[in-house]
Amino acid sequence: MTTTVALKDVTKVFPDGTVAVDNVSFDVAAGEFMVLLGPSGCGKSTVLRMIAGLEDASDGIILLNGEAANDLPPRERGVAMVFQDFALYPHMTVADNIGFPLRLSGVDPGVRSEQVAQIASALGIGDVLGRKPSQLSGGQRQRVAMGRAIVRRPGLFLMDEPLSNLDSGLRAELRAEIAGLVRELGVTCVYVTHDQAEALTMADRVAIMRRGVLQDVGTPTQVYGRPATLYVAAFLGSPRMNLLEASVYVSLDRHVALHFGDQSLYLPWNDVRARHVAHFHGERIIVGIRAEALIPVVSSAEGDVIHGRVRYLEHHGHETLAFLDIGATAVVVDEMATQPASGSGAPNGLRRLVSRFAGRAVGGPGTDDVASHGRAHQNGSAESRFTPSDGGRHHRRPAELVVRLAPYPALTQGTPLAVRVRMEALHFFDERGKRIDVGMH
Ligand SMILES: Nc1ncnc2c1ncn2[C@@H]1O[C@H](COP(=O)(O)OP(=O)(O)O)[C@@H](O)[C@H]1O
Ligand SMILES: [Mg+2]
């Protein structure tokens, strides 16, 4: 039988005072593949361990199949867990490793080997049943760990970054396999990862966490297409969403103007979002534009075009990303790196680029983002931090607008480039990082 899961206002405070999980609520339907996504340290494993019963909730209720399970011992929860550091028994063969849980529960050897063979073949490791773990590749070892979890036919799979120790090619292959297998079995799954691509490709729904707080829950299409917060917008997608600071000016007889430095975009009144954005007349908001919403055009003066100059190009083979200077201010959300950025607030990628293109040493603690770009900026400074409602932070720096181009374009540094903005694809957030058009559609 497959299990439903529900968390109601669940909080976990560790004895040292760390609030690892802060008032989190979400449901997982029977047979659903739910992915918990967020950077390292945001509380994902703690949520999973509370569902498994390995950790007590400090507050709130955990329901399994609709019944409070807070006091249920782990072995009575019908869950199987797969960890990042999947520990196989080194002295046992693959067959014995997979069959071990069955042996523990006294399943007859004949039945056991039949079930083991069936699962091993479903996992594509039927031909290595006689080998020891040391004779397997990383991917095969992970399949064995999966097999051992599956063999008991649990009602609920809990997987904690099961692929993060594998190299990227294998990860991509296994994520499709795992998602396919779990769906075939029809078992409910809560899968933890810090990798947004993994989340978007595998999940039926994604729950995104930051600092113990749940930010957004929805299908990949929903959270990617209509992120509830600035943080979710910044976390999902590659390349990252352009997040630009804009001043709003309402012109009642014409449009709502969004000023970025000395450039502007105009939201016509027949766009239903214009009224929501108009509330911010005279204030600054954050406008999100994904690279795919920017289309290079021959220079024009419409209200939906941004002009820039190529600062640098990044070739990815199948496409080239152009980063444009547009004289605007970007908003950078902290904690976007997998490992918490040390020292200065500059993301690792930025520091790498600064050092590559400016020919400078990588900035250490205290490096000023703006100064390390080699120019002053009129609107913002790296120190102008503000605190959004979820306790995280974002800061400002000169914008580098990322645009997708066909591979290896004939452009060089400094080339002017104009892009048309698909206005309907803009995202709007207030300065605290909350989506402005919430409650619409
Ligand atoms: N046993 C513990 N005692 C104190 N703090 C802990 C303990 N386990 C985890 N934490 C802290 O709780 C937070 C969430 O941890 P965790 O759930 O492991 O995050 P994630 O799995 O998202 O990386 C982190 O700040 C971590 O340091
Ligand atoms: Mg973890």
TrEMBL record:
Keywords, in A-Z order: ATP-binding, Nucleotide-binding, Transport
Organism of this sequence: Planosporangium thailandense
PROSITE patterns cross-referenced by the UniProt entry: ABC_TRANSPORTER_1, ABC_TRANSPORTER_2
A GO term for molecular function: ATP binding
Record's compositionally biased regions (Polar residues): 378-387
ABC transporter domain span: 5-236
Membrane-spanning residues: none
Family matches, as PANTHER family: MALTODEXTRIN IMPORT ATP-BINDING PROTEIN MSMX (PTHR43875), OSMOPROTECTIVE COMPOUNDS UPTAKE ATP-BINDING PROTEIN GGTA (PTHR43875:SF1)
Annotated segments matching region Disordered: 363-396
Pfam families: ABC_tran (PF00005)
CDD domains with a match to the protein in the record: ABC_MalK_N
Protein name per UniProt: ABC transporter ATP-binding protein
